[in-house]
Amino acid sequence: MERVPVETRILKSNDDYAQANRRLFRQRGITAINFMSAPGAGKTSVLEQTLRQLDGAFHPAVIEGDLYTTLDADRIQAIGVPAYQITTGTCCHLDARMISRAICEFPLHGIDTLCIENVGNLVCPAEFDLGEDLRVMVYSVVEGAEKPRKYPLMFHQSHAVLLNKVDLVPYAGVSIQELEDNVLAVNPNAAIFPVSCRTGQGLSNWIDWLTRSLDLLRAPAVASGCV
Amino acid sequence: MHEAGIAAGVLELAERVAADRGPGICVRTVRVRVGEFTGVAVEALEFAFESLRTHTRCEDAVLEVERVPLLGLCPNCGWTGPPAEPYCLICPHCGQPAQILSGRELEVDYVDIEGSEEHHGASAG
Question: Which pTM does this prediction carry?
Answer without folding.
Answer: 0.91
